[in-house]
Fold this protein.
Amino acid sequence: MGYPETFEGFRIKDHDNWSHFEKQEYKPKPFEDRDIDIKIDACGVCGSDVHTITGGWGDSPLPLCVGHEVIGRAVKVGDKVTTVKVGDRVGVGAQIKACLECKNCKSDNENYCPDQIDTYGAPYPDGTISQGGYASHIRAHEYFTFPIPKNISTEDAAPMMCAGLTVYSPLVRAKTGPGKKVAILGIGGLGHFGVLWASALGAEVYAISHSPNKKEDALKLGAKEFICTNTDDWAKPWAFTFDFILNAADMTHQFKLSDYMSTLAVNGEFHNVGLPDEHLPQIMAQDFTPNGCKIGGSHIGSRPEMLAMLKLASDKNIKPYIETIDISEKGCKKAVERVKVNDVRYRFTLVNFDKAFPGRE
């Protein structure tokens, strides 16, 4: 049938065969007054995509097209849309809708709306399951569609839509800036953004990793020092040091958390944005008492935070470390399989959508 009645995307249909993508047509949810249709030019490959298609975070509605780091051009806008016009280059992240009426939404916390809809794998009120950005098009509410500054390339902007925002939001909510000592734990897709943002915000930044080979990159990204955790007593010299630790690692279930918590200053926070498939390790209540520290987590960020993050990236010419792969059944397979084993420096962006979806409007 084709656009606008149907979109095309690369979808998986079996968690046991999670890297086998098939190009399929599907019907999007009905178009509404504040919706925008976007012809996709690039889509980042997020760890969330892998956790979802493998079933690591639980069963998903299948078949499913993942991808929530979308950049493209608006090709249709609803009658009540005021922030985007046809032809604008825009992005969509990991959330595609919220009620916009509850107290959370009214306080710029729409990312915690109880009625939020994820960009893929979530039901709309009419029963349609949202489908993501490994696709020809995406249909998004204007509040969750963001203008992309001209001096940020499409390939660089894509991973900012989820990975970038996921670490930017907790950093600014922790008042990261001059005078603060911030540690970024895990120098990968999320963590390398953490170092970039924390440094740009003016904090004194430390990179923590079990991989000594990440040192050179961490220092280039803006870290003052690199701390390697591959010795038993690594934490001792750093006791009572950090105001905020942003945990971007995906292996927290293997950590001795008390070591990390011991490096926090009084009332410091160990904040999780890396979300492994496994449970957190067991800890004792007493582990919080030597420095009055706390542990927390967060979910993406708000529209004002997204816009502020993009402005920061534009003003300071901040560029993530990315690799590009042409989107196709083989390209999607290659990307997710390499992300699964952390074989990427540090994010993939799928590109060349016109080749995969020829003749689309």
